Amino acid sequence: MAKRIVLASQKGGVGKTTIALNLAVVFAEKGRSTILLDLDPQGAVGLALARDEAEWMGVAEYLMNKATIDEILHQTKIPSLTIVARGGLDARDVCEYEKVMQSQGLLKQLLDGLSRKADYIIIDTPSGLGMVTRATLATANYVIVPMQAEHLALRSTSQILRVIEHVREQENPDLELLGILPNMVELSKDPALNVMNTLWSGFGGVFDTIIPRAEVFAAASQIGLPIGFLGGKLSFEARRFEQLASEIDSRIEAA
Amino acid sequence: MAKRIVLASQKGGVGKTTIALNLAVVFAEKGRSTILLDLDPQGAVGLALARDEAEWMGVAEYLMNKATIDEILHQTKIPSLTIVARGGLDARDVCEYEKVMQSQGLLKQLLDGLSRKADYIIIDTPSGLGMVTRATLATANYVIVPMQAEHLALRSTSQILRVIEHVREQENPDLELLGILPNMVELSKDPALNVMNTLWSGFGGVFDTIIPRAEVFAAASQIGLPIGFLGGKLSFEARRFEQLASEIDSRIEAA
Ligand SMILES: Nc1ncnc2c1ncn2[C@@H]1O[C@H](COP(=O)(O)OP(=O)(O)OP(=O)(O)O)[C@@H](O)[C@H]1O
Ligand SMILES: Nc1ncnc2c1ncn2[C@@H]1O[C@H](COP(=O)(O)OP(=O)(O)OP(=O)(O)O)[C@@H](O)[C@H]1O
Ligand SMILES: [Mg+2]
Ligand SMILES: [Mg+2]
Questions:
Q1: Which residue, B38, B41, B189, B248, has fewest beta-carbon neighbours within 10 Å?
Q2: What is the C-alpha separation between B108 and B114, in angstroms, rounded?
C-alpha cells in the first residue's frame, strides 16, 4: 500500500504545486514507483504537463464514473513516475467538484485504487481549509505544509496545524505531520526562520531543508516542467530536493 | 447604494488581499466613504489590523446571527475607512462557513446592509473558483482580477474570466469585469504583459496601471499595514495605487 503524502497550506501561492511536482520527480528518480495526484480543481499539474495535447482524463472523470483507475494513470518520461491529473473540469463546475469531494466516499475509493499501483502518492491540494483539503487530510498518511518565511504566514500555518490535529483526533489517527517546509526563502538568516523553529521545534517541526527563492523554480513553472526535467545544469537546486526527500524518509521512519 | 468591487482570482498568492487593502485606503483618503470587507475565511485583513487586541467581530458573527451590521463595522484611523473583518472563525469550521456562504441569502443580506453605510465596498475573497467566490461574484457590481505576469497564470486567469461571464449570464447581469491587474511585475518589458494585452484588449482588458514587485508591499504585509498607513516616504508606490484608483473610476464610468 502506498504512502500518501499531501502538500497542504491555507495560504495561497506558497509552493504546494511546485514542491509536489519536484518531490514526485525526485522520488521517482530514486526508482520508487510514484504517483503525482492533483486534487486541486485548479488543475495546474495536468495543465502544465499535458499542454500540447487534449487534456488528460483524470480525477474529474473518475468522480463522474467516466474513467477507471487505469485510464487516469499517465506514464511520464521518468519510468517510475505516473501522473493523475485533475482531468476535464469546467471552471464553472468547481462547486460541484467540491461537493463530490466533500462526501469523501469516491475520494477514498480513488486513493485506495491508486494505493495498489505505487509506493508513493504525492498529493497536491487547493489552498485554504475548505472541504477539498479536509477530505484529503482525512484520507492521507502524511502531510507537509510549505510556507514562506514571513511574519504573517506564521498565523496561517498555525491555523492549518490546528486543523491537522483536529483531523487526527476526529477522523484519521494515522495522519502524521511530517513538517513545515520553508519555501522561497531569500535570506538564510531570515529572523522568521528562527521564530518558526522555536514555535514548532521537534518532530513535526520545521524541516532542516529549506527551499530558496530561485528563478529556476519559477522558470520551470513557466515552461510547465519540474526542475528535474530541466536536465543536468540544475544539479544544485535538484540536490536540494534530494536532500528534502531523504529528510522525508527519515521523518517517515521515525513517525 | 455602494459600489461593490471584488478582488478575485483562481490562483493563490497573487495579491488580492494586498491590493484590496491598499485600494480601500486610497479611496478613503480621497474622502469617499469606504468599507473593506473580508470574505476570505483565511481572515488576513482582520488578523493584520486587529493584531494586538481580541479579534474583531465580523462576517462570521453576522452569519451566525450573533452581531448586527453596526457591531461588525470597525472605524480605522482614516475617517472614511471602516473595516468588516472575517470575525471569529475557528480553522476547523471553514467548511461550515463555506456552506453558509453558498446558500447566498445571508451574504446578500450582509451586502445590502453594508451598501447603505458607504459609497464603496472593497471585497477580498479566497483564491479558487469555489462557492465563496461564486457567491460573492453573484452579489457584486464590479470585479478586478489580479495576476502575476507569467505564462502559467494566463490559463488560470482565462478560467476565472469564463466563470465571470457565466455568472453574468446566469445570475448577475450587473456584474462588470473592470479589468485584469498585473501585480508583482518585475520587468516593465515582460513579454507576458504583451501576451496579456493581446488576449484581453479593450474594455475589461488589462489595466494600464501595473503594480510592480516591491519590497515595501511585502514589508507592509509583514507589519500588517497597507502602504497608505506607512506614511510619507512611500509616495511613489502609494501614487501607483492612486493611479489605479483613477483608472478604476474611469472604467466604472464607462461600464
Ligand atoms: N522556491 C521558489 N523560488 C521561486 N519561485 C517559486 C518557488 N516556489 C514556487 N515558486 C513560484 O511561486 C508561484 C507559486 O507557486 P505554486 O503555484 O507552486 O504555489 P501553490 O501553493 O501551489 O499556489 P496555489 O495556492 O495557487 O495552489 C509560482 O509562480 C511558482 O513558480
Ligand atoms: N506588488 C507586490 N510586491 C511585493 N510583494 C507583494 C506584492 N503584492 C503582494 N505581495 C506579497 O505577496 C504575498 C501574497 O500576497 P497576498 O496575500 O495579498 O495574495 P492573495 O491573493 O491575497 O493570497 P491568498 O490566495 O492566500 O488570498 C504576500 O506576502 C504579499 O505581501
Ligand atoms: Mg497549486
Ligand atoms: Mg488573500
A1: B189
A2: 10
Q: What is the 3-state secondary structure (H, E, C) of A196-238?
A: HHHHCCCCCCECCCCCECCHHHHHHHHCCCCHHHHCHHHHHHH
Q: C-alpha distances in angstroms, B98 versus A38, A145, B12, B119, B126?
A: 22, 22, 17, 27, 11
Q: What is the pLDDT of residue A130?
A: 95
Instruction: Round to whole Å and give the CA distance between B48 and B177.
Output: 28
Candidates A6, A17, A180: which one to mutate for ligand 1, based on the most atoms within 8 Å of Cβ?
A17
Cell 502506498, located at residue? A2
- Report every protein residue that has its C-beta within 5 angstroms of ion ligand 4: B 16-17
Which chain B residues touch A11 with a CB distance below 8 Å? 12-13, 42
Q: Which amino acid is at A163?
A: V
Supply the mean pLDDT for chain B: 88
B128: left (phi over 0), alpha (psi -120 to 50) or beta: left
Residue A199: per-residue pLDDT? 78
Q: Identify whether the C-beta of residue B112 lies closer than 8 Å to the C-beta of residue B105.
A: no
CA distance A181 to A211: 8
Distance B38 CA to ligand 2 centre (A): 15
Can you say how many angstroms the Cα of residue B69 is from the centroid of all Cα atoms in its chain?
20
Residue pair B8/B179 in contact by the 8 Å Cβ criterion: no
- Asked if A98's CB is within 8 angstroms of B47's CB, the reply is no
- List, in sequence order, every beta strand (DSSP E) within A103-217: 120-124, 142-148, 176-183
Dihedral through CA B202, CA B203, CA B206, CA B207, nearest 10?
Answer: 130
Average the pLDDT over each of A62-66, A185-189, B77-81 and give the range with the smallest value: A185-189
Which one has a higher pLDDT value, A248 or B103?
A248
